[in-house]
Amino acid sequence: MPSKTSLLNKELILQTIRSGGWISLIYFAGLFFAIPLRLLMMYAEENEELYLRKVDSLFQYDYEIQIFLIVILPVALAVFLFRYLQVKQSVDLMHSVPISRDTIFHHYAISGMAFLILPIIINAVVVLMLHSILGLDNVFLVRDVLRWAGVTIVFNLLIFLAGTFVAMMTGMSIVQAVISYIFLLFPAGIMVLLLLNFKVLLYGFPSDYFLNQEMEKMSPLTFATMLNQRPFHWQEAITYIFFIILFYALALFLYKRRKLEAASEAIAFPKMRAIFKYGVTFCTMLAGGMYFSLVPYSSFGWIVFGYVLGAIIGYYVAEMILRKTWRVFGNVKGLAVYGVFIAILISVIQFLGIYENYVPAQNEIESVRLADNSHMYIYRNEVYEDYYIPKPLKEKVNIEAVRKLHKQIVADKKMNQVEEDIHPLETAFFLYELKNGDQVIREYTINRDIYSELLSAVYGSKEFKMMTKEIFEINEDKIETIKVRANGYVDKVATISEPEDIQEAIAALRADELAESYEDGAYFQNRGSSIEIHLGKDKFLHLDFKPSYVQFTNWLKEHDLLDRAKVMSDDISHVVVMERKYSDYVDPDVVINDIKANGDFLKITDKEQIDQALNKAGWNFYNSNYAAVFYYKVGNMKEVLFFDEEHVPDFIKNHFK
Questions:
Q1: Under a CB-based contact definition with an 8 Å cutoff, are residues 607 and 566 in contact?
Q2: In this structure, is the dihedral angle defined by the CA atoms of residues 391, 395, 400 and 401, taken in order, positive or negative?
């Protein structure tokens, strides 16, 4: 009569325990040390932190240990459990017994999942017991423990089953481990490589904008490193569970079709070997180009050299892995074909210029945003959302001014791609919202001085200031206090707290912002005092009080606050000024030595002249004609500031005639 087989095979279960049970014990011990034992130690030492500080999640306890376990053990478990597939004697023996491949796979895969889940569940139960016994409701809640257990299980299963999926495609354990991590990092890694290389190949490509779009979420390994800082949302959990099921199904599919003789082969399926070889070649090629693109002053020729070198290294490393020998350098045909294909592709991208030359037509544009960085459109939180996210420009005259600037930057491609360090470089970030719902995003590095007239047409407009400056977004009724803190080497602060005074101060700041020219805004950038606006509930806005702010200066003077709000002549003992055509440093001692060596300098001790110098000096040393060292009375401190030809006081200019 035919023999009956049980769904659970005792020998297979014992074999899986021998292969991977020890990893489960290590995982249990590691988690116990990271959380339950840590809580007991804090309780035994009567650590007030245990009872006074609420934690956002249990990942904040010995987080480094937890993440090490999550990242390392699931892959190691997949390697050791499916080690029998990589050794010819073991794979022949395993598949000679009267058990179907489906049954073998399910026993090993489910056992591996159990080895990871059980330590988590047991430790969660222990933490719940400690939570009840020690009374830790004010530190974390029961749902925090359940959330920690659920998130940890999801990450472990995803990483383990990704390693299991890779095990089905390889015939060598070391290759399985390496490819498992490459596979897990691939989504984030390939996106970084592509985005950085697009920046090289496509003028204006906004790689910084896309690189900051939560790229860490694209890989479970990089996401795991952020679990102590950000929550794991249910939408992300559903996505991960989908991939857990997918990897399980794909691994089973490949296992049933895997040939026994694939043991000891780097790639088990012949048709996948070409994908592996050219995939490695492509990735190392991108890495080579990226490396040389990040080296300062590297020309496009060096970047091409990086592509060639990276492709050669990747191609022959892949060949060595596949053939298990270093004698592979005679095979050049595949590399040559690959090289010709890539060269044609890059040439088409470079010469067509469809992406680079495209500027949306006026009648296609609904609105546009122009900024000197892309980060303000990336990071989102309650404060930024309300105050710091610039609103789009919709007036036709401003849209056309932005288009004119954009078209000129595109026309100046060759000039803008020459790296210089003697001009004030800044980012020009364009974000068009088209009427059809599409977006056009570009990002360039430009010399601010060359485009000052075109930038002024946009930045100097009333709509741009109203839509982008934080001062116009503030609700005065929500302001608790305004503190104007003097910069420099003095400890002075003016506080405004009366509601009526706050209203008047904000009105003066708004008037100054509207009256300020683009040129003054650029010249006095990072100069003057800092304004801290307290909005309650630990919300603060930080603005600049520039020397060009006439209305606010007069208001402070009328309320006897000016002396406490900025550096004044009473704080300075004297000023030494030297004429110079340019400057590439701001170290006071270096400037002082230069002044002494030059011999021709002006020493200022008159208080009125010192105040003029303070109100006319800028921090930007690019295009400066004069360097000035301000000597503070307190602490023998020195500060270097600069004057350009337009802002230098007449008495300084006359001295050096």
A1: no
A2: negative
For the chain, percent of residues with pLDDT exceeding 70? 91
Place of tokens 């003016």: 494
- Tokens in use for 333? 């045909």
Structure tokens that stand for 434 in this block:
């088209």
- Cross-strand bridge partners of residue 369: 431
pTM score, whole prediction: 0.79
Q: Which two tokens stand for residue 399?
A: 């849209």
Instruction: Specify the length of the chain in residues.
Output: 657
Phi, psi of 374 (to 5 degrees): -100, -10
CA distance 528 to 545: 6
3-state DSSP of 413-471:
HHHHCCCCCCCCEEEEEEEEEECCCCEEEEEEEEECCCCHHHHHHHHCCHHHHHHHCHH
Q: Measured between alpha carbons, how far is 256 from 248 in angstroms, rounded to an integer?
A: 12
Whole-angstrom distance, CA of residue 473 vs CA of residue 467: 8
Q: What angle do CA 365, 366, 367 make, to 5 degrees?
A: 95
Q: For residues 87 and 82, what is the distance between their CA atoms, to the nearest angstrom? A: 10
Dihedral (CA of 56, 61, 64, 67) sign: negative
Least confident among 310-319, 375-384, 501-510: 375-384
Distance set, CA 619 to CA 86, 447, 488, 490, 551 (Å): 65, 17, 12, 17, 22
Q: What is the pLDDT of residue 196?
A: 86
428, 409 Cβ separation under 8 angstroms: yes
Residue with tokens 């991977």: 20
The pairing of strands 481-485 and 529-536 is antiparallel
The per-residue b/e assignment along 592-613, b for 16 or more CB within 10 angstroms, e otherwise, is bebbeeeeebbebeeeebbbbb
Alpha carbons 488 and 527: distance in angstroms, whole number: 10
- In the numeric block, which tokens belong to residue 261? 């003789």
End-to-end CA distance of the chain: 116
CA-nearest of 226, 345, 244, 239 to 289 is: 345
Using CB atoms within 10 Å of the CB of residue 150, give its burial: 0 to 12 exposed, 13 to 18 middle, 19+ buried. Answer: middle
The residue behind tokens 């933490």 is 127
Output the six-digit token pair for 362.
């006026």
pLDDT digits (tens, 9 = 90+) for 443-483: 998 888 889 899 999 999 999 999 988 888 888 888 999 99
Query: What are the percentages of helix, strand and coil residues in the chain, rounded to 5?
Result: 60, 10, 30
Tokens of 579: 């004429």
What pLDDT digit, counting tens, does each position of 400-447 carry? 999 999 999 999 988 887 766 556 678 899 999 999 989 999 999 888
